[in-house]
Structures are given as C-alpha cells and as structure tokens.
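User: I'm curious whether this sequence folds into something compact or stays loose and floppy. Could you predict its structure so I can see for myself?
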Amino acid sequence: MRFIFLIGGFVGFSLVTLTGVMSDRAIDLVLRDASIAALAGAILFRWFWAIFVKLLSQAVRAKRATRQAAEEAAAAAAKAAANAAQAALISSSQAALRR
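Assistant: Here's the prediction. I'll summarize afterward.
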C-alpha cells in the first residue's frame, strides 16, 4: 500500500511539474502546484488500489465458488450414476431369481 501511495505522489508531482515547466510558469508556482498534485495523486492512487484489490478478491472468491460447485455437481452425478447402476443390478438379480 505504501508503494502505491508513493507511486501516486510521484506521478502527480511529475505530471504537474512537467506541465508547469512546459507552460513557462514561475518555478515557485509550479512547485506549489506540484506538491498539491502529489498529495492528490497519492490519495487517488490509494483509492484506486483499494478498489482494485477488492475486485480482485471478489473475482478469486467467485472462481473458487464456481470450481466448488462444479466439483459438487460432478460428485452428485457420480453418486446418481452409481445408485442407478446399483438399482439396475438389483432389479436384474431379482428378475433372475423370479425365473
């Protein structure tokens, strides 16, 4: 999280400094605006990072739930097939005994 905060501050500072220098503004105004942009950039990057981490964890949870549901469905299908085979075997053996 600290790394994202630093990157956001650096990006904000760099963009505003570059823009201010290229537009021939006074350096004291450029540095003032750049320091404000560093704070704003850091806060925005932290907010975006929190949203990204939240969405990533939701995607992982959804993927795990899908995989678990597929495993449970496969287990239920295998159990149903085993029960059907057992029922067929029992009915065929009962039919053989009746003869």
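Summary: The chain has one domain: 2-72. Residues 2-72 form one domain.
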